Amino acid sequence: MFNSTRIDQFKNIPTPFYYYNMELLENTLDLIKTEASRYGYHIHYAVKANANPKIMKLIQTYGFGADCVSGNEITRSLETGYTANKIVYAGVGKSDREILTALEAGIFCFNCESIPEIELINELAEQTNKTARIAIRINPNVNANTHHYITTGIEENKFGINRWEFESVLETLEQSKNIELIGLHFHIGSQITDLSVFKGLCLRINEIQEWFKERQILVNHINVGGGFGVDYKHPDENPIPDFVSFFGIFKEFLNLTPSQELHFELGRSVVAQCGSLISKVLYVKNGVNTKFAILDAGMTELLRPALYQAYHKIENISSNGEEEVYDVVGPICESSDCFGKAVSLPSTKRNDFIALRTAGAYGEAMASRYNLRDIADSVFSNEL
Ligand SMILES: *Cc1c(COP(=O)(O)O)cnc(C)c1O
């Protein structure tokens, strides 16, 4: 991933920074576009994975829409060239102001997560003389078999509307004159690498569609969300997720009528592998039983290890020395600010470059200013 020319270029850039391999992002987008077009599937990029304007603009040029979870993400999407009629908007806690932003823009669809939310959207749409298109976000009670913090589709989660509430939803919709039901939406979690989970989702959607069909309700849009996982362990061997198999599962197992269109909201699988967090070693410090490699990047630049014990591959791209074992940690005043324990790296010293791989999704997007740290810059391969 990083040849010596690239590493020489890094020497002029203050660390830490996010590095984006734009060729890899383009290759990933090419494959998604080819495979999705094969079946006429609609792709919405899940902005929360990485809202960097350059990344968002490139993705938009492929004709994809945006999947937003806040009013500001809607605004950012419009600013980076996404058309309102390809924007979908989910979230359990949409505020009045955010709903008004979405109504004003005339987005394609609100993915609604509760009855009180539907009532509020109806009220605000009435006040502004608009009709809001909505999909109901259904909690399909399918376990994504992923980390419990990123599981969203089982009954005890806060997300979506459960099956026993469907009747009341339909009653609410009866009375909501400024709402048009156009779809059913599902999103069961993230970093799902077991494709049989998506097969399970398809079968559950087929059952749920039967329930609606029995009540003469036919919607034209089915949205199956995102959640497709990437290979954090082997970023060089598997730089692009297997979208052929992924879309193939939906083609094979999901029953759609000829008028129904299928939508996806892909985040991590689009952008994760193109990004690395590049950092320098500040100090190598001897601990009691271990050596610490202390980096100038921490949980403020890449939160996932501290937040969900997530694994990121750690590489020393400056050294060819003998392998030694290090605890790789950041500078932040929290013990959870640790990128990896007992990591085998070539002999490491001050000022070596350390790459934290697969950081393109939920890396820069989750950056914080905790400890009053500066927000790290982003660097693009096609601008070096
Ligand atoms: C986060 C999210 C996505 C994207 O999930 P990935 O795992 O990054 O693909 C899609 N839809 C909704 C509603 C989300 O909240």
Taking all Cα atoms into account, the compactness measure Rg is 22 Å
Poorly predicted runs are: none
Number of strands: 16
CATH architecture annotation of the largest domain:
Alpha-Beta Barrel
The rounded distance between the terminal residues' Cα atoms is: 15 Å
- Summarize the main sheet: 8 strands, mixed
Q: Name the helicity range.
A: 25-40%
- Strand proportion: 15-25%
Number of DSSP helical runs: 11
What molecules are bound to this protein? pyridoxal-5'-phosphate
N-to-C order of helices and strands: HEHEHEHEHEHEHEHEHEHEEHEEEEE
| Mean pLDDT over all positions | 96
CATH H-level superfamily of the largest domain: Alanine racemase
Keywords: Amino-acid biosynthesis, Decarboxylase, Lyase, Lysine biosynthesis, Pyridoxal phosphate
Modified residues (N6-(pyridoxal phosphate)lysine): 48
Binding site for pyridoxal 5'-phosphate: 227, 265-268, 362
Catalytic activity: meso-2,6-diaminopimelate + H(+) = L-lysine + CO2
